[in-house]
Amino acid sequence: MQSTVVEVNRERVFGLSSTDASSSYTSIQYAFHLLNTGSLQVYESGVSRGLFGTYAASDVLKIAVENSIVKYYQNGTLLYISAVTPTLPLYVDVCTRAVGATVWDESEQRKHRHLQRDRNKCRYKSFLSMANERQ
To answer: 103 phi and psi, to 5 degrees?
Structure first.
């Protein structure tokens, strides 16, 4: 999945999962966590894999499966390689943590806006498209 950042002032978590285990962002198996401070983190099933600098509006964030390995990219630069082997197929999984947060899934060419009233809980989570393995 690939997404272009629209805003930097709204927290959201998005990525890929093979199942819809819960409505919590911690159930997203391979995820970018965009903080409303502009910080960029990688999470896998609720476990932080680290802080990877900052992000800006118009940055392109991508999570790809290449030869059965999950890789995270920012503007075409490899940020992180997962040590966790994915169970395919994977689907786009989104959790917004602020009212008005957006995620643009460019693999589907659709804009998905998820709204949330309660900042402490993720209420909207969607499986939007299948991520195909890319060689």
So the answer is: -135, 130
Evaluate whether 126 touches 86 at the Cβ level (below 8 Å): no
Long-range contacts at 108-111 (CB < 8 A, ≥ 24 apart): none
Model confidence over 68-127: pLDDT tens digits? 999 999 999 999 999 999 999 988 888 887 777 777 666 554 444 443 333 433 433 343
- Could you tell me the end-to-end alpha-carbon distance of the chain, in angstroms, rounded to an integer? 14
Looking at residue 68, what DSSP letter applies? Answer: T
DSSP-assigned beta bridge partners for residue 70? 65
Of the CA atoms within 13 Å of residue 63, those in its CB half-sphere come to: 27
- For residues 133 and 46, give the distance between their C-alpha atoms in angstroms, rounded to a whole number: 23
Amino acid making up residue 68: S
